[in-house]
Write a structure and sequence with these properties.
Blueprint lengths: L42 E2 H7 L1 H5 L4 H7 L13 E2 L1 H15 L13 H12 L4 H15 L6 E3 L6 E5 L9 H20 L5 E6 L20 E3 L4 E5 L13 H9 L14 H14 L7 H7 L4 H10 L4 H19 L4 H7 L5 H12 L3 H8 L3 H14 L3
Length: 395
């Protein structure tokens, strides 16, 4: 990596336009004109109806389940209504309780909640995420022939968690796969106290669309391949070495009692990774792209040796975090703006284009031009990239 650095030279983001200013509202009210109301963002009523398919098949009243979850039952099957992430969490819990089935009625062989509790106990006693994941997979394989998870560790992209689901005919398999992926993502993020760094999400189904524009897979903050040969989550290898920060059933029950927002990125509090990221982002805003660990440790009231040890306990290294932050910002510029790739490299501190390309490949697994070409047409990724640029430009 080249030691020379440059800053952004300002906070204006080229190519990323933010609308604002005069809203153009008339000074004279016009009550006779009906103005359309923007649809609520979230899982719409059609998707909710499909999510309740297993419960309906088992004889449950869907409207009663919605009301028991504190949700207006008129949403059922209504494309113009939606629920947020906390309501979704409550609804899933209500379906599981009503059916005594962690798989919400989508598999011929369910999983009773008592068995699900024992499975939770089994991986809470593990030391690392990788160990917990393997224990969870072995336990799940023994529960039902309709669900067959496995790990593919030799994949060049990362560690692939392949999930095979044999859902009941007539039910929406795609909504069930999404439900399971959300559960896995939030649970294992909670276990390590920070969001999982997914390398990619593979989905056999097609891209889901909603009239309200809600992007169901955006919360994973990773590339998504629809029409894939299998359903899988691809983990960053370093995440599997992360130590668990939660280890008791009472902690898990308290987490569920908090009614987490399952449409938001999981938050595990201020881990050492989080603290280091915050300090490095501040340095990058001032144009210091290669802040040494000594400076960052001093800001965190630690010392280099202790910071390295604490980060290692979370499955991280200082160099990985620093490279990842630059890669994420470079990727955001590539998707949210149309500026030349060479200029993108300058903006994240690289003088030599070749050095930028080599480091970007190390972060993303592809060249900057391939990254832009592959993801520029994905509205969810472009939206996330624009948001990241706005966040990183804040003082």
């Amino acid at each position: 990596m080249n030691g020379r650095q440059i800053g952004f030279g300002g906070t204006e983001l080229e190519g990323a336009k933010i609308m604002g200013g005069d809203l153009g509202l008339s000074q004279v009210p016009e009550p006779e004109v009906a103005r359309p109301t923007a649809p609520l963002r979230g899982l719409d009523g059609l998707a909710v109806k499909r999510l309740l398919g297993g419960a309906v098949l088992r004889g449950c009243d869907p409207e009663a389940l919605l009301e028991d979850a504190g949700i207006d039952s008129s949403i059922y099957g209504n494309a113009n209504a939606a629920i947020d992430g906390r309501s979704y969490f409550r609804l899933v819990q209500q379906i599981q309780i009503a059916l005594d089935d962690a798989f919400i009625g989508f598999l011929a062989e369910g999983c009773r909640l008592a068995l699900e509790t024992e499975r939770t106990r089994s991986y809470l006693h593990c030391s690392t995420l990788g160990e917990a994941l393997r224990v969870s997979i072995r336990f799940t394989q023994a529960l039902s022939a309709d669900i067959g998870p496995r790990l593919v560790e030799e994949d060049p992209l990362g560690v692939k968690h392949v999930c095979t689901y044999q859902t009941i005919a007539g039910l929406d398999r795609d909504i069930f796969v999404w439900f399971r992926f959300v559960w896995i993502y939030h649970l294992f993020s909670w276990l390590i106290g920070r969001p999982l760094k997914l390398r990619k999400v593979f989905v056999q189904g097609s891209r889901p669309t909603q009239a309200n524009g809600f992007q169901r897979f955006a919360l994973f903050n990773a590339p998504v391949e629809f029409g894939a040969p299998c359903d899988a989550l691809c983990y960053d290898r370093q995440d599997l070495h992360a130590n668990l920060v939660h280890g008791s059933l009472s902690e898990y029950e308290a987490y569920n009692a908090s009614v987490p927002d399952w449409f938001a990125t999981p938050s595990g509090g201020l881990t050492w990774r989080g603290k280091t990221e915050q300090a490095l982002i501040q340095s990058q805003r001032s144009g210091d792209w290669l802040a040494p660990i000594e400076d960052i440790a001093r800001q965190l009231r630690s010392n280099p040796r202790r910071l390295r040890r604490d980060l290692a306990g979370e499955g991280e290294t200082f160099q990985q975090i620093r490279m990842r932050l630059r890669g994420e910002l470079a990727g955001a510029f590539l998707l949210a703006t149309d500026i030349p790739i060479t200029v993108v490299g300058y903006k994240v501190g690289f003088i030599e284009p070749g050095s930028f390309t080599r480091n970007f490949i190390a972060w993303s697994g592809m060249t900057p031009s391939d990254y832009r070409r592959q993801h520029k047409s994905d509205p969810a990724r472009v939206a996330m990239a624009t948001t990241l640029l706005m966040e990183r430009s804040k003082p």
